[in-house]
Amino acid sequence: MFSRLNQLARHLSRPIPNYTYRSAAAVAPRPGFTSGSGAASSTSLGPIMEGKRPIHTAGCIIIGDEVLGGKTVDTNSAYFAKFCFSLGINLKRIEVIADDEEEIVETAQRMSRNYDFVVTSGGIGPTHDDITYQSIAKAFNLPLILHGEAFSRMKRLSKPHPSQPNFDWKKNSPSLEAKKRMIRLPLDESKNMDDQVIFVSDKLWVPICVVNENIHILPGVPRLFEQMLDGLKPRLLPRLNDPEGKGVYRILFSTPMAESAVAGYLTELAAKVEAKGVKVGSYPRWGKSHNTVTLVGRDKEFMDNLIPEVEQAVGGRRVLAEGEDDTDIESDKDS
């Protein structure tokens, strides 16, 4: 890990251009967007401003040496995948990268160009290896600014650690500087701050920092990640294909047949339903008596009409959850 001095020197000596967000999937704003007036309150997520682009695609960046080293199990990407599926957002990519400035810079720039909605997880703590904010600041040529409201919230809501009984918010100290690292945010002072710093709850001092309009910087702690992501949902709904957030429809079928036995039919079915935006999937289940076939799409009526045909063709039945009719078997499944 480079020292902070070396990082600062590199940042000053190697300026990079500002990358203006333009997703490959972006289209013109849909009718019905309204301009908001006034700043959002600390509990309100604020109005969706006119000109925000619709959200079709998403990407997820998990940042942390501890994940790559096997010390921590990443659950945030799985939670994000379910979150996107529930809203009908097409999650296109999940990447796990190290606490390395150049990797964060490259990945953030690329993800921001390619996808409408990007989240990062991890690397925003008080220690030297928490470099997500400074790396994303470098990626988009932004300054790191101590955010006043976040600092006020931190002082009001943070509980003193047992190892720091005499900690003083008014006294300069290494501990205070470490805490401030967590609220020095990459901000564009020429743009609306309410769109860049989002507080999802009065009970949390940690903000969601939004950079380049589509990168949302979240903590790596799963409990916080999940709470803050859920709190972001009201801001996302008006920008979805389905503003009601009904998401994608999925039908599961349990079949006792081997994948090779149903492969021909599933190939024909996939070709038949492609025009309706329906995807057909098949998943072997090692050591179990039944495999799974899925239909995923948005046309519920069309998909429901396919249920009898699929059940008959795969010799199985629709189930609400995978494993409903499982029994363990000794022989390997034919895939």
TrEMBL record:
Segments passing through the bilayer? none
* Gene Ontology terms, MF aspect: FAD diphosphatase activity
Q: Matching Pfam families, A to Z?
A: MoCF_biosynth (PF00994)
Q: Which residues form the MoaB/Mog domain?
A: 59-239
- List, alphabetically, the CDD domains matched: cinA (cd00885)
One GO biological process term: flavin-containing compound metabolic process
Q: Which InterPro entries match?
A: MoaB/Mog-like_dom_sf, MoaB/Mog_dom
PANTHER family noted in UniProt: MOLYBDOPTERIN BINDING DOMAIN PROTEIN (AFU_ORTHOLOGUE AFUA_5G11210) (PTHR47675)
The entry's protein name is: Molybdenum cofactor synthesis domain-containing protein
Biological classification of the source: Eukaryota, Fungi, Dikarya, Ascomycota, Pezizomycotina
